[in-house]
């Protein structure tokens, strides 16, 4: 289901074992299992070798670190990651670096998915140590899949932020845009966060209208994938543009262009074209591939 | 796009006017516009008459209330809702009452969508008055579409929680389940929150496996809608079940059954059948309708 030629960050091999999170006794047994494995992240970066994530024995859990259950493998072996004491994520700009992206591209199928889940949950803990309802410090519960406030009783759960990413098509051409400070020549599908009170289809239409001034209808869902920077759910769609006349919001986009199927096919095949394609583990790559194949 | 026969909570008539949220001068002008309208909620309940939401002049903004920009109508008139001082949402169980559901069903197309956006954003403000990163009290910014912490500088934005809701099909029958304490006879599509690090398709497969012990593949997207209790994005899908042998998780479901297309068509037509259908403004209704029509 995944790998460089598939959809990024999906196809993880672990069963999340939700029931275990709610069963204190079973969780204690998993934590005491000598076969239990631990995924240690270096800050939020993965440690990987030869395309595989670097696992160690859970017994190597650093002092003061709190284990987070990632799930069980086919043999029932529990796998954890850890929130280490004093972990910081405010060096985040380095996290989406070319070096990380190259490392992710080297991971075998499914490994990036496991990393994505671990990274998003750890990052959420680090940035959500206090109760948004009352301001008191909270504590991890449910094997790391939540935080609870003892002062007001509120339970908090990791965020997943849905993002729509879309191609507006008109007369056989696709609308692509580029943000400020992107690598030279790089264009990709427009995208934006879905807001409370709107459907996926409405968010697609709103974003294209806001960024490019184009009315979009007939929105079709194509695919989804997680994007752990920090915790997005990417929802890829194609819609029909009523016009190819653009009114670009220069606060959002540096530029936007219409590209033909022939252009997209050439670029995806590694040939020269009017733009440089997004990387294969970004869903924009799959979205362009799907559109080019229509 | 909406109304009782369409998809619930979509088709709102207001342009969200994102640019206005970032433009202090334009926002001040909108707030001073004598034509500006205000949607007052009674707690979190809508005030409605004859299928229309009850709007008043923005000049009627209660003392101490903070306006939240909902958007502009076709004539450019700004529309606001308000976070009133001391508003509480901890009487939430009453919020999803039969009375509210009946009122929502009576609203004209698009009105429930405007209400959904207002309700979700207000509810988020009330439950997120403190910085999750450092515990300090935060303040509204961006015309109500965010909160900022002056102590640590963190910006917070309203949550949207993606939920997958799905029909697993096997040999022409659909899997439905019922939760504890549901109205007698009511069955609906299985559903659950999507977690960090998984795609829509993976979440669908995981939820059906967890709740009913059935392996699901070939997941297809059907439709989406907001569900403002408090801020879900419902993502409806159909998948293929590998077997019709159920292993029900009794912590999650009170019961689960397989129903035929004839059963579903009868129930949706208001005839007697093996279950009572979900209400039309719930996406499960549209999902069942889509499946029955295949």
Provide structural commentary.
The structure is a homodimer of 294-residue chains. By secondary structure, chain A is α+β, with helices and mostly antiparallel strands. Chain A has 3 domains: 107 residues, no CATH class; 31 residues, no CATH class; 132 residues, Nucleoside Triphosphate Pyrophosphohydrolase. The first copy, chain A, is built from 7 helices and 15 strands. In chain A, the strands form 4 sheets. In chain A, strands 10, 11, 12, 13, 14 and 15 form a 6-stranded mixed beta sheet that branches. In chain A, strands 4-1-6-5 form a 4-stranded mixed beta sheet, with helices on one face. In chain A, helix 6 packs across helix 7. The radius of gyration of chain A is 21 Å and the shape is globular. Chains A and B meet through helix 4, helix 5 and strand 13 of A and helix 4, helix 5 and strand 13 of B. Chains A, B: GO terms for molecular function: hydrolase activity. Chains A, B: InterPro entries: NAD-cap_RNA_hydrolase_NudC, NudC-like_C, NUDIX_hydrolase-like_dom_sf, NUDIX_hydrolase_CS, NUDIX_hydrolase_dom, Znr_NADH_PPase.
Short description:
Chains A, B: Keywords: Hydrolase, Magnesium, Metal-binding, NAD. The first copy, chain A, is an alpha+beta fold. The longest helix of chain A is centred in the middle third of the chain and has 17 residues, at 111-127.
């Amino acid at each position: 289901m995944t790998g460089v030629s598939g959809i990024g960050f999906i196809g993880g091999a672990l069963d999340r074992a939700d029931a275990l999170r709610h069963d204190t006794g079973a969780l204690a047994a998993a934590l005491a299992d000598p076969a239990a494995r631990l995924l240690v992240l270096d800050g939020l970066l993965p440690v990987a070798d030869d395309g595989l994530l670097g696992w160690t024995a859970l017994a190597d859990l650093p002092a003061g670190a709190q284990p987070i259950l990632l799930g069980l493998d086919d043999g029932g072996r529990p796998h954890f990651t850890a929130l280490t004491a004093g972990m910081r994520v405010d060096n985040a700009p380095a996290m989406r670096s070319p070096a990380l992206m190259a490392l992710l591209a080297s991971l075998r199928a499914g490994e990036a998915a496991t990393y994505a889940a671990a990274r998003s949950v750890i990052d959420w803990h680090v940035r959500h140590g206090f109760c948004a309802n009352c301001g008191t410090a909270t504590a991890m519960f449910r094997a790391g899949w939540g935080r609870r406030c003892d002062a007001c009783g509120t339970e908090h759960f990791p965020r997943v932020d849905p993002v729509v990413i879309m191609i507006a098509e008109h007369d056989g051409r696709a609308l692509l845009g580029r943000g400020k400070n992107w690598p030279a020549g790089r264009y990709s599908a427009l995208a934006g966060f879905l807001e409370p009170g709107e459907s996926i289809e409405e968010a697609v239409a709103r974003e294209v209208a806001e960024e490019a001034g184009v009315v979009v209808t007939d929105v079709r869902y194509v695919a989804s994938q997680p994007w752990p920077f920090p915790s997005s759910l990417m929802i890829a769609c194609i819609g029909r543009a009523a016009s190819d006349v653009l009114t670009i919001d220069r606060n959002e986009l540096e530029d936007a262009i219409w590209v033909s199927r022939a252009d997209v096919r050439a670029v995806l095949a590694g040939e020269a074209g009017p733009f440089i394609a997004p990387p294969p583990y970004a869903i924009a790559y799959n979205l362009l591939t799907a559109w080019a194949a229509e």
